[in-house]
Amino acid sequence: MNKDLYVIKTLEQTEDINNVIFQKYNDLKEADIERKSHLFHGRYENIYIKDTSIPEIQDIIEKLKQEAALFLNIQKAYLKFGFWFNAMSPGDQTTLHCHDDFDEVLSGVYYIKVPEQSGNLILHMEKQLEIQPKEGMIVLFSPCLKHHVTINNSKQIRLSIGFNVTVLNNAD
């Protein structure tokens, strides 16, 4: 297996901020949502919110940008970072897909709330890699790497942030 296709890390001391983000996500109103995309199996896999709706998310986003910069060996200032929320209710799953639609150089997921048995991330490589998520975990991977998430068999919502990274033109 080519480890350059993915990396798994854990952000330290994120429990409190994750709890705040999870609570504020649950309190979102329709007016807080900019758009939804990828309607599969009756749910939107991607929820984009207004920047002002959960300002606490910015601390986590900055940490994710730093991890992406380290993985790519490039200065954080040269990265463009787009993210969305993915809320999986009991019985939900995510379909097989990849993120190589445009000019992405890196994709990833950060786990905010992970009840037991709420679905594993499956990376499709030469041999499938099954990752059991944990709160505070980051998985960075190649945008061309196909992946899906198994069924949430818990009785609670699992909340994560999906993201894509591109390199700005002036990084040369």
Record the strand order, biggest sheet. Answer: 1-9-6-11-4
Structural class: alpha+beta
Report helical residue fraction. Answer: 10-25%
CATH architectural group:
Sandwich
Low-confidence stretches: none
Instruction: Please work out how many helical segments DSSP would assign.
Output: 2
Percent of residues in beta strands: 35-45%
Tell me the series of helices and strands, N- to C-terminal: EHEEHEEEEEEEE
Q: Describe the sheet with the most strands.
A: 5 strands, antiparallel
CATH topology grouping: Jelly Rolls
Report on this structure.
By secondary structure, the chain is of the alpha+beta class. It has one domain: Jelly Rolls (Sandwich), CATH 2.60.120.620. The chain is built from 2 helices and 11 strands; from the N terminus they run E-H-E-E-H-E-E-E-E-E-E-E-E. The protein has helices spanning 15-26, 57-72, and strands at residues 6-10, 33-40, 43-49, 79-88, 94-97, 106-113, 121-123, 129-131, 137-141, 147-149, 158-167. It is globular and about 45 Å long. The two termini are 30 Å apart.
